[in-house]
Amino acid sequence: MTDYKNILVTGGAGFIGANFVRYIVEEHPDIFVTVLDKLTYAGNRANLAGLPEDRVKLVVGDIADAPLVDQLVSETDAVIHYAAESHNDNSLQDPSPFVQTNIIGTYTLLEAVRKYNKRFHHVSTDEVYGDLPLREDLPGHGEGVGEKFTPESPYRPSSPYSSTKAGSDLLVRAWVRSFGVQATISNTSNNYGPYQHIEKFIPRQVTSILSGIKPKLYGNGKNVRDWIHTYDHATAVWAILTKGKIGETYLVGADGEKDNITVLRAILKDMGKPEDDFDFVQDRSGHDLRYAIDATKMHEELGWQPKYTDFASGLAHTIQWYTDNQDWWQAEKAEVEAKYAKNNQ
Ligand code: NAD
Ligand code: DAU
User: Fold this and answer.
1) 85 and 161 Cβ atoms separated by less than 8 Å
2) Shortest CA distance to 120 belongs to which of 107, 130, 131?
3) What segment(s) does the record annotate as region Disordered (predicted)?
4) How confident is residue 120, by pLDDT bands cut at 50, 70 and 90?
5) CATH for 83
6) 12 alpha carbon to ligand 1 midpoint, in Å?
7) 200 CA distance to ligand 2 centroid (A)?
8) Position 243 in a domain
9) Are 160 and 93 in contact (CB under 8 A)?
10) How far is ligand 1, taken at its centre, from the CA of residue 125, in Å?
11) 2 CA distance to ligand 2 centroid (A)?
12) pLDDT tens for residues 321-331?
């Protein structure tokens, strides 16, 4: 039970937002969810399909639309803010929607929660901390202090995407300190699971294999990401929303470090293909080397633990989901690949 009966979830028709909404509907039957989503290329009504109308309402609109945001925030008990432009590669082609949505959009929400004194949770990324050296480049091969991101790590984002997320985090921190806004922040590592847009690494490779296209690996494939199942991200956000301390930053991860080539080989093997049946392609400009989260604060202060830590089984379920739901992604596949092909990726 919680005091929150009505929550506003921005970006709830995107990948992680929709998985959060589904988690709320399943696990918290006393809560009504309003989703505010612009339905950009990454938002999809189908991500909310099948959810009961008396539990979830979708409002199609922009988080930077101040009158709309003012009205929706006035009617809610808490705002969980997922809406963003989220893809690094897109941000390298055109940063402008990233600045508009991630910074101006977050500012617009902050002004509304400030006016109505509403609880605000800001969903952010570990990428605000830049990258870490690869373990093999660390003395003692990475055993010891300072090898993971902590809430004290300095901000040093690399891409237009991560710099706009960093900017939005700093706005939240300032609104807490200067105006007493009741906000928390989470910085989470790479999510995977159902409903992830096929521009992203795991779904791109799975849907390529299903379409008879060779998977594409950037650079030498040694870059490391720290994978967490999106369901565990949802439970972490819920724990912070209900038990977190106002003004605090929480790092969310599930000890899921893997290099990209290992993940790609696992996908190929799972799908019955030779493990070297992929192309090395042009590296991403400014490509972050390694992310790794120290989630001690989540464990010790909020008692949160991830459940889906068996990556092999989570990956197999995710592959099965894309295999079973080809109608969900097929119409977009050619366009996504054409966009990548322009950059030899
Ligand atoms: P996504 O791109 O799949 O979804 C973003 C959603 O926001 C879409 O539904 C889109 O329509 C909506 N949106 C975009 N601009 C909007 C606007 N101006 N107004 C209203 N809605 C708008 O993204 P995702 O991967 O689900 O990420 C969600 C959030 O989680 C983002 O804030 C992202 O920075 C953060 N995050 C993502 C990851 C990850 O691995 N994907 C990890 C950590 C944090
Ligand atoms: O760490 C959290 C972040 O994770 C989130 O903030 C972002 O919103 C989310 O998109 C994700 O960012 P990444 O850039 O790490 O994810 P992406 O899926 O784009 O790429 C994962 C890794 O795979 C990265 O090292 C680049 C590489 N890659 C990606 C694609 C699309 C490839 O090698 N080939 C590809 O085709």
Assistant:
1) yes
2) 107
3) 140-164
4) very high
5) 3.40.50.720
6) 8
7) 6
8) yes
9) no
10) 11
11) 35
12) 999 999 999 99
Strands (E) across the chain are located at 6-10, 32-37, 56-60, 78-81, 119-125, 183-188, 191-192, 216-218, 224-226, 228-229, 249-252, 257-259, 279-281
> For residue 287, which atom of ligand 2 is closest to its CA?
25
Residue 135's pLDDT is 82
Ligand 2 atom closest to Cα of 87? 10
**Residue minimizing CA distance to atom 19 of ligand 1:** 62
Question: How many angstroms is it from 31 CA to the middle of ligand 2?
Answer: 33
- Close Cβ partners of 83 (under 8 Å, ≥ 6 residues apart): 10, 11, 14, 17, 36, 37, 38, 63, 101, 105
The answer to whether position 330 is within a domain reads: no
Q: Which atom of ligand 2 lies nearest, measured to the CA of 199?
A: 31
Ligand 1 atom closest to the Cα of residue 47 is: 9
Is the beta carbon of 244 within 6 A of some atom in ligand 1?
no
Does any domain span residue 277? no
Q: Which domain holds residue 11?
A: 6-197+227-257+288-308
Percent share of the chain, pLDDT over 70: 97
Q: Domain for residue 141, yes or no? A: yes
Query: Which residues are identified as catalytic?
Result: 126-127, 161
The verdict on the CB of residue 169 being under 6 Å from ligand 1 is: no
Among 30-39, 134-143, 185-194, 264-273, the range scoring the smallest mean pLDDT is 134-143
Whether 165 lines ligand 1, by a CB cut-off of 6 Å, is yes
Q: How many DSSP H helices and E strands does the chain contain?
A: 12, 13
Choice from 9, 82, 108, 251 to test ligand 1 binding pocket (greatest atom count within 8 A of CB): 82
pLDDT confidence of residue 144: 55
What is the model's pLDDT at position 3?
84
CA-derived radius of gyration, the chain: 19
Flag whether pLDDT at 275 surpasses 80. Answer: yes
Range name among 136-140, 148-152, 157-161 with the lowest pLDDT average: 136-140
Q: What is the pTM of this model?
A: 0.98
Q: How many domains does the chain have?
A: 1
Specify the pLDDT at position 145. Answer: 45
